[in-house]
């Protein structure tokens, strides 16, 4: 049997329970050996019972001190990412950190610097990028089938009870639609177009008194004149797609970020300038593929396809959008 990376889970968040730990169990080169819930051993024990995890801890530090653990997954609130990524790295643990990596570009850079200094692998968990449908989209773009790309549109939205105590609505914890799901749209714009914007503008007329944005729209502008517009919202029906528009046609990906909701099925709809369309179906297990890629990088001492430098670039754009949102002005990057 091939070697497996031993994982520890720092926290019992829903994303860990519903997506990441099941993905580790499906992966061919990873296994979960421990979970921690700060100050709540019972919660950690209940989580462990669901997945037959051997060890539980009631402190994150105790988990990080476990020498058997090689890699950790950090699904903590956004404002805690920087602190615990650094602590994990200094204990020699490789780190898969939930998105967004941190709250600012400076924080992200400091996290990546510590991971580099400690010679551990760091990756921000944008799981969607590991679904093979996006590689196919890039192939179609490069083939010239839709001509020269001039525009990309993306959207990620769902309904969230704004009266709830959800951490997504807490400004102190790094809440807001832009941090939570807008980061996907920003990432996809850079990932699919394979370039960096030089200016951004974002706006929102729907905010809580704390300043947390509930719905935000934005525009990224690139040096060659290409634009990428996006919208993210806690107040709209579930949507998670993007569209790439060219001079001879367009590509639509309706399940771009959460194809797992469709059983792993990705759809790519290609429409030519005459309005004729065809649909390609691409299947994939994006969460398991992410775990397998990260674990492979640890085993082989390779750099992840999405490394810390790229996380810094993504946070630079995200922070630019936040500044634009707060000041109602175009921000040069």
Automatic annotation (TrEMBL):
Occurrences of domain Gfo/Idh/MocA-like oxidoreductase N-terminal (ranges): 5-125
Keyword Transit peptide applies: no
Record domain GFO/IDH/MocA-like oxidoreductase: where: 136-251
InterPro entries recorded: Gfo/Idh/MocA-like_OxRdtase_N, Gfo/Idh/MocA_domain, GFO_IDH_MocA-like_dom, NAD(P)-bd_dom_sf
Cited SUPFAM superfamilies: Glyceraldehyde-3-phosphate dehydrogenase-like, C-terminal domain, NAD(P)-binding Rossmann-fold domains
Keywords of this entry: Oxidoreductase
UniProt-recorded Gene Ontology molecular function terms: nucleotide binding; oxidoreductase activity
One of the Pfam families matching this protein, by short name: GFO_IDH_MocA
Family per record: Belongs to the Gfo/Idh/MocA family.
Protein name (database record): Oxidoreductase
């Amino acid at each position: 049997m091939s070697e497996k990376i031993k994982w520890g889970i720092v926290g019992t968040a829903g994303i860990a329970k519903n997506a990441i730990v099941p993905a580790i169990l499906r992966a061919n080169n990873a296994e979960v050996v421990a979970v921690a819930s700060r100050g709540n051993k019972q919660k950690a024990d209940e989580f462990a019972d669901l997945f037959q995890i051997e060890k539980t801890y009631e402190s994150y530090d105790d988990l990080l001190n476990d020498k058997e653990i090689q890699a950790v997954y950090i699904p903590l609130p956004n404002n805690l990412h920087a602190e615990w990524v650094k602590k994990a790295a200094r204990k020699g643990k490789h780190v898969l950190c939930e998105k967004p990596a941190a709250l600012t570009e400076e924080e992200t850079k400091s996290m990546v610097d510590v991971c580099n200094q400690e010679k551990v692998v760091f990756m921000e968990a944008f799981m969607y990028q590991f679904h093979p449908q996006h590689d196919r989209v890039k192939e179609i773009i490069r083939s010239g089938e839709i001509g020269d790309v001039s525009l990309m549109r993306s959207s990620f939205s769902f309904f969230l009870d704004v009266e709830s105590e959800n951490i997504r609505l807490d400004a102190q914890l790094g809440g807001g639609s832009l941090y939570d799901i807008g980061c996907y749209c920003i990432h996809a714009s850079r990932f699919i177009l394979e370039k960096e914007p030089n200016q951004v503008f974002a706006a929102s007329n729907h905010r809580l008194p704390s300043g947390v944005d509930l719905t935000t729209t934005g525009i990224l502008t690139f040096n060659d004149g290409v634009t990428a517009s996006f919208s993210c919202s806690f107040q709209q029906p579930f949507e998670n797609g993007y569209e790439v528009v060219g001079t001879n046609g367009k590509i639509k990906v309706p399940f771009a970020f959460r194809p797992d909701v469709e059983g792993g099925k990705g759809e790519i709809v290609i429409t030519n300038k005459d309005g004729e369309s065809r649909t390609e179906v691409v299947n994939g297990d994006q969460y398991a593929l992410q775990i397998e890629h990260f674990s492979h990088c640890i085993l082989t001492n390779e750099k992840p396809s999405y490394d810390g430098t790229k996380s810094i670039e993504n946070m630079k754009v995200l922070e630019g959008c936040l500044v634009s949102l707060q000041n109602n002005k175009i921000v040069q990057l």
